[in-house]
Amino acid sequence: MTQLSNSHYRTAFENASDAIFIHDPEDGHILEANETSELLTGYSRSELLSMTVAGISPARTPFSLDQALRRIRRATEQGGYTFEWTIQPRGGDELPVEVNLKLITVEGRGLVLALFRDIRERKLYEERLIAREAHFRRLIQHSSDGIAIVLPNGRLRYVSPSVSTVLGYDERRATGRNVLDYIHPSDIERIRRLLRREGSQCPDADVAHHVTYRILHRDGGWRHHEATVKDLVRASEMEGILVNYRDVTERVEAERKARERERELEHVARCRSMGELASALAHELNQPFAAIGNYIGGCIHRLESGRFDPGETLTALREVNAQAERAGRIMSSILNFTRRNDPQRQQVDVNAMVRDVASFIDLKAERSDARVEYRFSATPVGTVADPILIEQVILNIAFNGIEAMAGTEPGRRILRIATDRLPRAVRISIEDNGHGLPRMNPDQIFDAFYTTKKEGLGIGLALCRTIVDSHAGHMWATSGATGTVFHVALPVAKEEGHA
């Protein structure tokens, strides 16, 4: 193997990309310097060889000769040492450098070899990174969203500073605690299962899952959160489950209040419908009560006159019982329809819902010199719905149709109600022979407070569409032969769809 000559080493020394100095470890004098040193400092080699380390450093703490000698001596003791320093080039700004000191022996004498590397760009990137980190930290700290890294057992490895804004806890005290200790008892098992599944490296581990839960605020109240959960247990930089969470308590409360207002409007609409039929219902109830009175009066008369006949009396009492049951059914229908109940979804036949309100529709039609024609699907058409709410929709549309025919000749006032089965839905169609749709976008008639009635509030059709939408259904209007056809489509019940 060919040995390199001294000239080769000198060439490598002069052309090195780093500035190279050789120092006297006793007093810090520069004994040798390469060409890169001249470019870095702005001093010639002859000038550098007459200077100490302090001569190329800023005249301020901590860049004094004493500090430089301490580092040089440390390098002689340890055999090597790397640190950051600042030099002062001639006629230029201060320059950050990385210094690597190594102990070398030249002709039996211990010297220190110093490699100076310009780290201006690196420092600039570091400053930008620190500034960006501080910027994002401020954003996260004052954000309504939060970030957490959770272990599969629920323990927090990291929580963003915004936890103090979102939940009132200090981020340092929160780290290391178990998040399950703060989850609402009704949600804790569901969250525990989710964390275990995410941490088990299941096939869908890379898929983000969305979850809602309630969590305890430091003030003692329960807050509603929405979160996106993703398994990053295998990611070396995370080693946990990443949770991006958001406080949605205000939205949840607003939705709850909106639902309460809708229920109030639904109840008002049902009571108003019954109010419109008050006289007709009174007449309808008067018939069974009058019959009951007649039968009981007859029985009393026979008993008082001594013409008691057990067979006739039994027949009369059976008629009394039948008329009482008839009155009870009418009252029960009214009470069920006007009662303020929480929504209850169940599988129900659309034909049955139409039949349940048919008596009310017939009463309204009779008072308006109109006739109602029903055309039911030959087979049951099932859906999952709250029957009271859907019956209210049917009743509202039917009443509107009857009122829309006020200007139609009495003999032509016909309301047609039909049920049928679409490919993926069941449909109720209600057609009138009234004045037809207004000359405008048909969807506008469903806007809140739109009405064509002088005494109307404009909440009927808007409320109907809201109810249908809440059932994942659709409501629309089309022009009929002479009037308007309203359609209500509801999803087919799953059991029926599978069949």
TrEMBL record:
InterPro entries named in the record: HATPase_C_sf, HATPase_dom, His_kinase_dom, HisK_dim/P_dom, HisK_dim/P_sf, PAC, PAS, PAS-assoc_C
Catalytic activity: ATP + protein L-histidine = ADP + protein N-phospho-L-histidine
Keyword ATP-binding: yes
Name of the protein in its database record: histidine kinase
Keywords: ATP-binding, Kinase, Nucleotide-binding, Phosphoprotein, Transferase, Two-component regulatory system
Domain named Histidine kinase: residues: 280-494
EC numbers, comma separated: 2.7.13.3
One Pfam family matching this protein: HATPase_c
Domain PAC: 209-260
NCBIfam families assigned: sensory_box (TIGR00229)
Gene3D superfamilies xrefs: 1.10.287.130, Histidine kinase-like ATPase, C-terminal domain, PAS domain
Organism: Xanthobacter agilis
GO MF terms held by the record: protein histidine kinase activity
Residue span(s) of domain PAS: 5-79, 132-197
